[in-house]
Amino acid sequence: MTETQGSSGTVLILGATGGIGGAVARGLHLRGWTVRALNRDAAKASRNVSAFEWMQGDAMNATDVMAAADGASVIVHAVNPPGYRNWSKLVLPMLDNTIAAAKAVGARIVLPGTIYNFGPDVFPVLNEDAPQNPRTEKGAIRKEMEARLKAASKAGVHVIILRAGDFFGPSAANNWFSQGLVKLGRPLTAISYPGKKGTAHQWAYLPDVAETMIRLIERAESLPPFAAYHMRGFFDDDGTKMIAAIRRAVGKPDLKVKRFPWWLVTLASPFVPLFKELKEMRYLWREPLEMQNDRLIATLGEEPQTAVDDAVVATLAPLGCLPWDCGRPLTTAPGRLGLSS
């Protein structure tokens, strides 16, 4: 490893046009890092963000990733196949490309993790070392991703994984908040909530996730070869706190709450692959979950945390859901419900 605690260097971001990848890239650039980004249309990407060093290439091509990683001390793996097509078939080969490149150049891999690789057998209080018994195909793939990274760490590739709950925030596509709880581009007349009152749920504000990842990168030299952490994020301890925050954001204390149409998901799941996956993930809304962040606090001293009211306003504004933003164009295209990787 070539970086030292608190230093800057060259970081390769795979997924720099995405939510978490873009946020980490911008944050590291502001801290003095040289940010290199691999993109299938580097010319277009550079017109949108000129501060990064864009390289033409595809994360699914091992040669492209290897060339982009040359001279990098950190690789942030926050990339998915275009449009999430063939995710289950492509995501592991993409990670293998990153591992091979990191091993060749001596770079550290940083991965934004999820809770999908855990099943309800280890709920309600989840710590980093809990057994991984996933309920879904996506969870099984996530488990395998971490297993490959752990094996790589034993072969000399240092790894940081930061797991968090359901993302929300500006530019956080493919999430329950913007494709489940609210309807985009119109004044909110109701909230559609997938869980039930009394069931705890974990949320993570994307800018806070990015800031936490950056602080871990800054302390990388003091971390173990395989370092996995949990964020507490916004812990809705009874399933009503996020609803209340949305109501405050739009100034409607009596905003109606409707049940998410799980009946439709169940009915259509034999015929619609997306609905089948959502049905499999329902346990995350039926079982209480609380993520412990003791290890993160011991490492960083604190967890970056934006006040939930500020975070919800910042999330709703670009979606066109606030009274003074109604009708404004969306800054990000809506993704597929609940399918953030």
UniProtKB/TrEMBL annotation:
<dbReference type="InterPro" id="IPR051783">
    <property type="entry name" value="NAD(P)-dependent_oxidoreduct"/>
</dbReference>
<dbReference type="InterPro" id="IPR001509">
    <property type="entry name" value="Epimerase_deHydtase"/>
</dbReference>
<feature type="domain" description="NAD-dependent epimerase/dehydratase">
    <location>
        <begin position="11"/>
        <end position="224"/>
    </location>
</feature>
<dbReference type="InterPro" id="IPR036291">
    <property type="entry name" value="NAD(P)-bd_dom_sf"/>
</dbReference>
<protein>
    <submittedName>
        <fullName>NAD(P)H-binding protein</fullName>
    </submittedName>
</protein>
<dbReference type="Pfam" id="PF01370">
    <property type="entry name" value="Epimerase"/>
</dbReference>
